[in-house]
Amino acid sequence: MGVNAFPRPGARRFTGRLYRALAAATVSVVGVVTALTVTQPATAAASTLAEAAAQHNRYFGVAIAANRLNDSVYANIANREFNSVTAENEMKIDATEPQQGRFDFTQADRIFNWARQNGKQVRGHTLAWHSQQPQWMQNLGGQALRQAMINHIQGVMAHYRGQIPIWDVVNEAFEDGNSGRRRDSNLQRTGDDWIEVAFRTARQADPSAKLCYNDYNIENWTWAKTQAVYNMVRDFKARGVPIDCVGFQSHFNSGSPYNSNFRTTLQQFAALGVDVEITELDIEGAPPQTFANVVKDCLAVSRCTGITVWGVRDSDSWRSNQTPLLFDGNGNKKQAYYAVLDALNEGTDDGGGPSNPPVSPPPGGGSGQIRGVASGRCIDVPNGNTADGTQVQLYDCHSGSNQQWTYTSSGEFRIFGNKCLDAGGSSNGAVVQIYSCWGGANQKWELRADGTIVGVQSGLCLDAVGGGTGNGTRLQLYSCWGGNNQKWSYNA
Ligand code: 9MR
């Protein structure tokens, strides 16, 4: 049982902004202080989103509206910064088949050709959807609608066969809220199997295309909708229904906020054997840190193949009043842009991976202590009390069973056999206690490479209250901020 502290974060990396600041500082004192040296990064930081993402073999894309391509500010930014393009509306059903059996690719081709001329990949969006159906389709039902859906998929994919490498085949087929059910729609009423029929049809229509299911409100691992889509994908993989990828739209706002368990979601889906993509990213108010977190989540998951933001400038957004994008209405780079660029450049300077990936000690690898970095003390169940609701504390490390925790393959910390480290809430200050194990997300924890232990339900860090280090200090959940009272080593 050798002590096995989490890997230390690597040597401080110069992120783009820090590097720029240091470089500027050097210039301002040149000739005065000659001893000051700045270590040059091995690889120069990339200066556009596409280049920075390409260093990780990811694409960085944007939703494009055909009627804005004549706006030179818009087109210049789109061309300079992005290497993947999604048609915001032009490849949808109402645009491509306005009358039954009569396809029209005028607007779709404007975007496709612009992307082609500028060397960009196109993500196809979207073939089967309850929304933006032309009137004739809205009026159909039953077998006629099922056949119309099949014809539509075949017609659109035939036009772009071999030329659009990724398609959103089915969009938004699940209900919001806690039901975990399919969304009611005319397509759903043709029978539960409509989704798999769509995927099988798409595979036949263009065997070279990667086929995605795309949805929103499936980013938070604890949400019923997320679990429902996960179960569908698992079932499809088990039964051989052709599905290659899941698109997480990632329209984050106050009603659907980003949660750091997004990384868990991406990992869990990827573990089913599909790629994952962030397909329509925008965030209310464009908080730089949240944008950076989303980027880091994608970089932490090897099957996360790319990120698309849903528009160029705030003024182009479907939610322009929320100013949720990376460029302001004048086309200036926002703080969120620099946060994204820095997050993409981080970890490439020294050839290293993402800065704070989860680590997984071998499950079933025995029990061990969880020792606080600030305190040197261990997480302890007071007096070996096995009652549900007993709050844990810091205490001098010893070999007693009330400090022996087993990290399981499902992410629990077990003690006394069937008790789990349990969060008694999901916001700052929530108590941390032991409770009978029941499989809940409040009993699951992610170990991060920087030594933090993050609650899967809350996305918050396991924290010694008030930065306390003494015997008897209680533990709680608290926003992760990098302090040593939130860092731990686990020696199982
Ligand atoms: O951004 C699109 C907006 O211009 C359209 O009016 C709207 C119509 O439904 O669709 C928007 O794009 C949606 C995307 O196709 C699917 N996910 C949600 C997007 C935002 O509504």
Description:
With 492 residues, this protein is an alpha/beta fold. It is 26% helix and 20% strand. It is built from twelve helices and 23 strands. Residues 1-42 and 349-355 have low confidence and may be disordered. Bound molecules: ligand 9MR. Ligand 9MR binds next to loops.
Query: DSSP strand (E) fraction?
Result: 15-25%
- What's the β-strand tally? 23
What is the CA-CA span between the terminal residues?
A: 6 Å
Mean pLDDT: 88
Q: Any idea what the radius of gyration is?
A: 25 Å
> Which percent bin holds the helix content?
25-40%
Report the principal-axis shape: globular
Helix/strand/pairing category: alpha/beta
Describe the sheet with the most strands: 8 strands, parallel, barrel
Number of helices: 12
Low-pLDDT runs = 1-42, 349-355
Ligand set: ligand 9MR
Strand order of the largest sheet: 1-2-3-4-5-6-8-9
List the defining traits of the structure above:
492 residues; globular; eight-stranded parallel barrel; single chain; disordered N terminus; 20% strand; binds ligand 9MR
Give a short overview.
The chain is an alpha/beta fold. The chain is 26% helix and 20% strand.
Secondary structure: elements and pairs:
Layout: H1 16-29, H2 49-54, E1 59-64, H3 72-81, E2 84-87, H4 93-96, H5 106-117, E3 121-129, H6 135-138, H7 142-159, E4 166-171, H8 194-205, E5 210-215, H9 224-239, E6 245-248, E7 251-252, H10 262-270, E8 275-283, H11 288-300, E9 304-309, H12 335-345, E10 358-359, E11 367-368, E12 370-372, E13 378-380, E14 393-395, E15 405-407, E16 413-415, E17 419-423, E18 432-436, E19 445-448, E20 453-455, E21 461-464, E22 475-478, E23 488-490
Parallel strand pairs: 1-2, 1-9, 2-3, 3-4, 4-5, 5-6, 6-8, 7-8, 8-9
Antiparallel strand pairs: 10-19, 11-15, 12-23, 13-14, 15-16, 16-17, 17-18, 19-20, 21-22
Bound molecules: ligand 9MR.
